[in-house]
Amino acid sequence: MNRRQMLRAALAPAVVLGVGTGCSEPEPKPGKIQVADPGDVTASPSSAAPTQNLPTGPLTGAPIGTPAAATRQAVAVPLRVSPATTPAGLDAADLVYAEFAESDTLHLTAVFHSKDAAKIGPVTEIRPVDIRSLAVLRPFVGYAGGPTGFLSQFENSDLDGVTPDDDGKVFSGDYTSTAALLKAAPKGGQPPSPPIDHAAEGDALAARDLVPATELSVTVAGGPPMVWRYDQAKSLWAGKVGKVTVTAASVIVLTMEYRTLDVRKPSPRSLPSANVFGEGAVVAVSGPNSAKGRWRKPGLGMVCTLADTGGDLLHPQPGNAWVIYAPTTAKVSVK
After folding, report:
1. Which of 21, 29, 133, 229 is most buried, judged by most C-beta within 10 A?
2. What is the Cα–Cα distance from 279 to 254, expressed in whole angstroms?
């Protein structure tokens, strides 16, 4: 069974119900999402066939630099970004997960595999969203500690990682690098499994309800909107994160419930947390098009499947992707 057949099987309701009953987290109820659709369909850019002498990156679906890079373990880093932050290394990441955190900040989970980054940060604490997003990718994680309960969750997962307290040489202040993390990682780490069913040559983003798009915005209560605009010349989506502009081949917005977590140790505080298990609405932009559908992730060890309105898998263009976890109260609009 190939990957597309496996993912299509994962979308079957009977399979999801069977797996979902064993999850440690309850499935959230799908929230309503406000989506403004543009007009007629435009053609997707044709995907160039991968260079025959180069392997395909499992996280990007695009040719990767060297055979050695294709077989190495991925590394991941959580970052905290405010409007005043100048984050480093994000454009080298193959995959970035974004959670809306407290005080108008973003908690980002950046995953690196096909490219190296000499400076990544500011590195922040581990959070449940990191563990739930990364478990299927098996990366080595560089993080800056965290609340006692979150550290216990990380230790009980199958993930491995390092903090400044474990090895200060891996970090320089609030920053690290892919080279330092790979050097610190135990031998025998495996490359990640593909989390996205990227488009092959001639594939469209969706089999139905495909519409043209030039702008995507996600607005949450009390904070500025996150806006992405399509750069037709580069065939990339560009958005501002903190003080830097980042680009992505695809931006995927998953709507889900957020809960408030009360942290006691080492210091009492409350923080929002996205529940990435369950199912909900998805809005994706890739190339000059957008599509709506449903996402489904039954549990920790399961890939998050993305389907269009008819139940067929979405096929984002090869390249790096941002996955945004939007609360059910968010307004997601496309034009």
Report:
1. 133
2. 9
- In whole angstroms, what is the distance from residue 327 CA to residue 258 CA? 6
Query: Residue 139 and residue 159: Cα distance in Å, rounded?
Result: 7
Tell me the β-bridge partners of 161: 141
Residue 38: CATH number of its domain: 3.50.90.10
Q: Which of 27-36, 98-107, 313-322 has the lowest mean pLDDT?
A: 27-36
Q: How many domains does the chain have?
A: 1
Can you tell me the distance from the alpha carbon of 320 to that of 188, in angstroms, rounded to the nearest whole number? 25
The H or E element containing residue 148 is helix 148-156
- How far apart CA 37 and CA 274 sit, in angstroms, is 26
Domain that holds residue 60: 3-334
Where b means 16+ CB within 10 Å and e means fewer, 294-308 reads bbbbbbbebbbbbbb
